[in-house]
What does this fold into?
Amino acid sequence: MAIVDVTDQDRDTRGTGFDVDRIREDFPILRTRLDGPQLVYLDNAATSQKPRLVIDAVSDYYANTNANIHRGVHRLSVQATDAYENARGKIQRFIGAERREEIVFVRGTTEAVNLIAQTFGRTHIDRDDEVIISTMEHHSNIVPWQLLCEERGARLRVVPINDDGEFLLDEYENLLNDRTKLVAVTHIANALGTINPVERIVELAHARGVRVLIDGAQAVPHTEVDVRRIDCDFYAFSAHKMFGPTGVGALYGKLDLLESLPPYQSGGDMIKSVTFEKTIYNDLPHRLEAGTPNIAGAIGFGAAVDYLTAIGMDNIASYEDDLLRYGTKVLSAIPEVRLIGTAREKASVLSFVLEGIHPHDVGTILDQRGVAVRTGHHCSQPVMQRFKVPATARASLALYNTRSEIDALATGLRQVIEVFQ
Ligand code: PMP
It folds into this structure.
């Protein structure tokens, strides 16, 4: 099983020590052939592939340390607890959080946003208050706020975007007012690749005493994230998009804010003591983690952080930036391609339509050639409405992708165009 040819340009082009050939060897699935053609995996915004280190960490836990955490005195339980809590520490350091209690394990970004909507939202947002989001949000950073606003009689306000898919800071400033209680925006937009000016967004909100949640699902695999520098109040992300397992993610929250939240889900582990008269809740972060968590997932998440840290987020960002520029150039050279999302600050996503050809047909024909892209609305229907398209095809890049794979995408697209001529 051969690996896609890697051109010299792919290898360590920038003198950073970043060797894509070596990196590809860490991902067993990249050697897959799909009934013939070599897999070219360009659907990383949906979920990324997993390196051997992560796969081994998960299977090693099940093979050698499997036990429930926190309550056991036996050795396996202590080892499992240590591994789970160590993973929390790795994630804390990875995003620059001050305390490990500020990291709450959740199922993923979706659960993190829902957690804040149901705890912070229900206690701080009342009739006629306002929540600000933007046009480029993923549905999981829209619907929880819609539900909350319906329940509380509050109002959802939406920051528009321009034709390049950029967040309009002036419009945002105009929307901020005395009724604004929360701003919830994405760091990097999954359907467009736009990198938002999150530090400025937070600064403007804080000037009015408004709290900010950042959806970091698409940011953490591609760029260095420092929650203290951003100064956001909450930051949400999923392990599976950053080379970790599915079903686990993290919510960062500033300690005093997390302390002030009411319980989210209730049950075991989130309590100190229970009688029928009164329950005393546990300390953070356990107070927000009811029930047996995804222990193996958290351990694999920690391994994914180790993996990214060893390569270096700066190296990853600069390699991917080069790849994105190359991809933009190659796709722009195909006259039938219309790129959706051309922000000046952009990461890892090439979303496009081919004139007169439905994106699902594009995706299906590319798949026959081994090229995996996503087609559809990418859980961002308001973005599709903004650009007046029903759907797009999206090639989303990760650290193991190469210029040769982008060439394979372009060749595939030319073949799609021929089929429809
Ligand atoms: N936000 C963004 C920007 C995303 O791209 C995604 C996943 N596509 C989510 C939130 C939801 O993440 P999850 O499904 O892992 O909860």
Remarks:
- The domain at 55-309 is CATH 3.40.640.10 (Aspartate Aminotransferase; domain 2).
- The radius of gyration is 22 Å.
- Residues 1-8 have pLDDT under 50 and may be disordered.
